[in-house]
Structures are given as C-alpha cells and as structure tokens.
Specification:
Layout: H1 10-23, H2 27-43, H3 45-53, H4 57-75
Length: 77
C-alpha cells in the first residue's frame, strides 16, 4: 500500500469519527472506499475500470497524471 498524508477539515473529521464509531470501520478502509467512490463518480465507472484493468507502468502513469491535473478543479482545492 502507498502511504499518503492528508488533512481533514474540522467538520469532515467530526463526520468521519462519528461514522467510524458507528460502523467500526477503520480509517484506512473508510478513506480508500470514500476516495474510490468519489473518483468513480467523477470519472465514470467504466473509465476507472479500464484504468485499473491495465497493470502496466504506462497506465499507472496516465492515472497519476490525470488525477494530478484534475484534482484542483474536481475537489475545489
């Protein structure tokens, strides 16, 4: 697994803590599911499946570049 560092907004942190307490899911699982869900909705399920199906370095590079180039506009950062 790749480790990433991120900061949650205060209101998101409260929601996440409550959800984790209620469901007993761990942080890693919550973050992975939430990001996968969000990206799938933004890109479209078929596009995500196609990217994940290709396991070569070129597809990983394409996915990284695509996300980096579009993260600001999609996530309002």
């Amino acid at each position: 697994m790749v480790k990433k560092k991120f900061e949650l907004e205060e209101n998101v942190a409260k929601l996440a803590e409550k959800y984790i307490d209620t469901t007993e899911i761990d942080w890693n699982e919550l973050v992975n599911k939430a990001i996968k869900y969000y990206i799938s909705k933004k890109l479209g399920t078929s596009e995500v499946k196609a990217m994940l199906k290709e396991n070569d370095d070129e597809s990983a590079k394409y996915l990284d570049e695509y996300i980096q180039n579009n993260i600001d506009s999609h996530w309002n950062i």
